[in-house]
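Thread: N-acetyltransferase domain-containing protein, structure

OP (GT): Posting the sequence first so everyone is looking at the same thing. Length is 312 residues per the record. Can we get the structure tokens written out before standup tomorrow? I want them in the notebook alongside the other entries.
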Amino acid sequence: MCLLLTVQSILFLQTLAFQQEKFAPSLRNRVASTMNAAANEKIVSDLTFRRPLAEDIPTCFEIESASYPGDEAASLDSLYNRQSNAGDYFQCAIFDGNIVGFVCATRCSLFEEESMSTHDPEGKLLAIHSVVVQEKYRRKGIASAMLKCYVEKVQVENIDGSIESMVLLAKAHLLGFYVKCGFQVNRPSPIVHGQELWFELEKSTVRGLPLDGQETWFCKTETFKRPFPEVKPHLEAHKDWVKQLRQHGYCITSGYRVDSEGKPGGGGLMFLAAKSYDAAQKLVLQDPLVASDCVDWQLNGWIGQVGDIQMR
């Protein structure tokens, strides 16, 4: 009986040792993965963002050169030019006091190879040239956080609506990354940049979500209740009012109803940002078209009631 118990004990210990040997690596991997995820989240949460100084450009150039092949990377002079002439659209990610990545862009009216080397301050497109992270900080969520912060900054600061959309070129293996960041793939690009095929992607500058805890979005819809000749004298004042709302960040986007010839008329809509319904209503009552009793309007009205909409 004692011998049988000993044999059973040995078998049990052997089985236990086998199970530990079999599952220990998996357990260690899960623990390591959890610890890495926590460390990465800490890095992302500690990131800050700022515009680069001239003395930052050599560091940015090192990151750029390590991120793209030689025939694709921006030159040192190009980065200096973007920092000095398009600095509003050049943003560095900072961790532990050091630059760990950056996003930079220039404005243009047409997304063409020639326009990518210049900056047009009035350009309606924002062409993003670089989204790069230092090699040792890659695969930690920094690129996503950096690009999303950049996009939100552009959307919030584009109060006059002069930038219609953000555009960029990407290779096939990075399309998923950019789509997750809110961009859509338009087409294979005719622009030749290096040896490989590139794709054009685009993202609207219209903000997609309210700022957390700071605002709620309201939809104001309106239809003309007077003949157009009676409404027309108030339209310039209405446009000035909309412009003021954009300058103060209250107007997210607006649009007007178009007739069969594509001409404005009949009404429109506007997405407003306000802290409360009462605050949004107060803004609407300042609209010259509302004050002059030219329109029937609703706050949070049904979008479909105003017909075909052309956004502006």
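GT: Both are above now. Quick notes for whoever picks this up: The CA atoms of residues 19 and 234 lie 81 Å apart. The chain is about 35% helix and 25% strand.
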